[in-house]
Design brief:
It is found in: Cell membrane; Membrane. Pfam families: MotA_ExbB. The protein is mainly alpha-helical. The chain is 79% helix and 0% strand. The protein has one domain. Helix 2 packs across helix 3. It has eight helices and no strands.
Length: 242
């Protein structure tokens, strides 16, 4: 026989759990929406300022002053180019690693770090979307069991006796589905946005690597150094993105 002290608490507990899941879903939607929107704006402003820079030095200054995922990738790349990514204790050993290989690895690692930051909270949405229908179904099954036990104890099997408790129990399944659908939709939306952001970060990392390769993995180009050595002003550069 079912525990009479626990049984009346099961269905309400299931409903409150589902309501809490719904609140979490909409909170994640708001937080992640603001995060992706802010990151999009920051990256757009950074790309414009970075590719208008006339040298890698100026590009480094832009990266240091700007927020956003792409600025973080650029800072990681400049750390390799300037050698600041190597601690003094490991400098002799790390210098044996080709700088281009270090740069490629550093850019890849930074992309993964930024990806983990952007996908934070999506696992919660996936869990809510996949478990809510089953939690609601559990509440329904328990409610039906309670109704059947009551019918067996009282001996009354009329429609008015059966329909009320079972109809009340079915509410849990409906609420579970209502909670799961938005969670799945929000998860799919932000997963698509995440893939788009990772693709853009990959494109920027490839462009940054090519730019560093053209400058022989040095912040100051040989042209500027030669002009400075002869006391002549450096020629006016076109923007790096030109």
């Amino acid at each position: 026989m079912m525990n009479s002290s626990i049984t009346p608490m099961i269905v309400p507990a299931v409903l409150w759990t589902l309501i809490a899941f719904s609140v979490v879903t909409w909170a994640v939607l708001l937080i992640k929406g603001l995060q992706f929107a802010r990151n999009r704006t920051e990256n757009k402003r950074f790309r414009k300022a970075f590719w208008e820079a006339r040298s890698l030095e100026e590009g480094e200054s832009v990266a240091e002053q700007r927020p956003g995922t792409m600025a973080s990738i650029a800072r990681a790349g400049f750390a390799v180019i300037t050698g600041s990514d190597i601690s003094p204790d490991n400098r002799e050993l790390a210098q044996r690693i080709n700088r281009s290989d270090r740069l490629e690895r550093s850019l890849r690692q930074q992309i993964q770090r930024e990806r983990r930051s952007l996908e934070g909270g999506l696992a919660i949405l996936a869990s809510i979307g996949s478990t809510s229908p089953f939690i609601g179904l559990f509440g329904t099954v328990w409610g039906i069991m309670e109704a059947l036990v009551t019918i067996g104890e009282t001996g009354e099997a009329g429609l008015d006796t059966v329909a009320g408790p079972i109809g009340h129990a079915l509410i849990a399944t409906g609420v579970g589905i209502a909670v799961a659908v938005p969670a799945v939709l929000v998860y799919n939306y932000f997963t698509r946005r995440l893939k788009l952001n990772v693709s853009l970060m990959d494109d920027f990392a490839h462009d940054f690597y090519s730019l560093a390769q053209q400058n022989e993995f040095h912040v100051r180009s040989s042209v500027d150094t030669g002009h400075a050595a002869h006391g002549n002003p450096a020629p006016r550069h076109q923007p790096m993105g030109a």
